[in-house]
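Changelog note: in this version the structure field was regenerated for every chain. One regenerated record is shown below for reference.
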Amino acid sequence: MNKVCFSFFISLLIISLFCFPAFAEKTETPINGIIYEFDEDTDYTVSQDYYKGNTNFVLPAGKMKLTGDMQTRGIENGVVSYEVLEGDSFTISYTFNEYYLRSNESNWHIIEDDGEEVYGTELDDDIDYGAVILLTSLDHEHWYLDKAVLNVTQNTVNPEPFQSNEVQLSTGCYYRIIVAYMLGKEGSENKRVAELYEFHAQYKSAERKNYDQERHYEFKENILVNAGSIDGFAETNEITTDDIHFGWKLGAFYIDGYTADKADTNAEKKSDRVFVKSLGDSITLWFNLEQDIDKLNDNSDYKIAYSNGASDQKFGIPKTYFKRGALLIRYTDRNNHVHEPVKYFDFLSALASPGANTKVQFYEEGYYEVALDYEIDNREWTGLNKCYRMSFSFRIVNDNNRPYLFELTTDDKSLIKNDPQQFKGGSLLNKRDTKNGFMIDLTKSKYLNITVSRAMFEKGVNGYYRHTEEISFSNDQKYYTEEGIYTITTTSSELKELGEDVRTVYVIKDNKLLKALISESNTDGDSIEILAEKLNNNQISIDDDGWITEVSAKQEESISETMDESAIAANTSVENQSVLDSLLESDFSNIDSIDDSTANTTDSNNNKLMIIIIIVATVIILVLLYIIIKQRRGKKNEKS
């Protein structure tokens, strides 16, 4: 008989680091349910025999609602199906009416119930004063208990909302919420009531069903062990020749949709493989079931057993109903925070149902551990069931080393500290300025090593000088509001070949040197260091608004004008001196040429006296003119 082959695929679709979807506001969607009513001694059984009516017409004990970004997409297996915004989640909450909680003995009110089973689901304790139970299913046939809140109205007025996860929504999941309680009233018989709410929810991408059979990675190295017993699935015994599982496998796990893969070099938490994701990649983990679970290895004596009271020691799963196989997926983030495992109980039953292909998506890079626990019933040897565990791990990293920087809408640290995301502004590019400060967001990239330094140019005795300090970066300190020049350096801890990414952000408030850096007057585009040097050398001046004025240009103009006027005065003095020397030389040469023989005559003496008087007067006049001209030139220079 040919093997029946079924396919299971788990999609690990990591949203692009560069895509930021526009999230709509979360809305509240009321959910209608059906009310069943029983007498005090009847079990909580959902049956048409106990049908009371729809919650639109029969008063329930409270209100059921969903909160999230979702819209109706149609009907799946007779229940309403919702499409949830990709990558988002929603909550399921139930609010009890005050009427049933505060009513006196003469009115119907919730009383204590010692029942421990609701709709075939066994609970850990009594229902007491009401229970709210969440069941989930992959195929609407095989249900498992997700959470149960007991003694609700005594422990709390309303239970904490149930939270969906990406694993459920990327596969497409059915949700069943049962609210069970007993009502009592003076003079009337007690009665049990069960409110049943059902719906289906998924991401749009849950419709993807096929994988790349040409390019994929198979996990096959030492992933199957004999795990001993259902009490922990903790042993790691090798599959030997006398083991009923020797020589055949239940199925295989594959991964596709990645850009590259490599061996893991992480010394602290080494995985079996690292997968690198690029823009647009859809990394998908598949499981291909190769066996008929009721006739394993084509042998009617071997089948997948129902494991009740099973546990998983490594994942910390306490004893519960694994039923026919449990798929467990655990995620660890960059900060080594280990998240609660995602559990699929009765997994192989759901997988073996016709058309029950399932897939799971994750939206975070990180370290993933996967385990499939199952028990084989050996009908040939009663009581000799065997337990097995398929397990492996892998890591997903993004192919970039860049964090995202965002402006802050306020610089009030007391406000930002409580909720930084509330004051997150627009994206901040490299070498841009902001007034309030900025925050570093690692939502889309976890495996980054980040260092932050802050530089300030402060005025000292000898002018402006640079002061730099290293600032710690951690989950608790991702925002920066102090004035200064910030340098953010990042490297990928997983992809060291990417090197360093360096970003600069200017937080500018009152420092005039920082203001000058981004001023329109900085026409040369000088760096902060050059501006500081020019300011220290008195080449420029900067006002309080950061406006730059070239001091050197004024000085050169003044000096040039002074030098021109001095040159004119000097030339004039030289010219006047030349004229005087010429006159003196000419007149005294005439005196020397007078004949000595006429010196004794009276006329000659008179002539000589007149000539001397004229020469002396001329010299005095020229000297006075020279002094007057020089004084006027000096006054003009002083005014200039």
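Spot check on this record: The first strand starts at residue 6 and ends at 12. Residues 404-546 form one domain.
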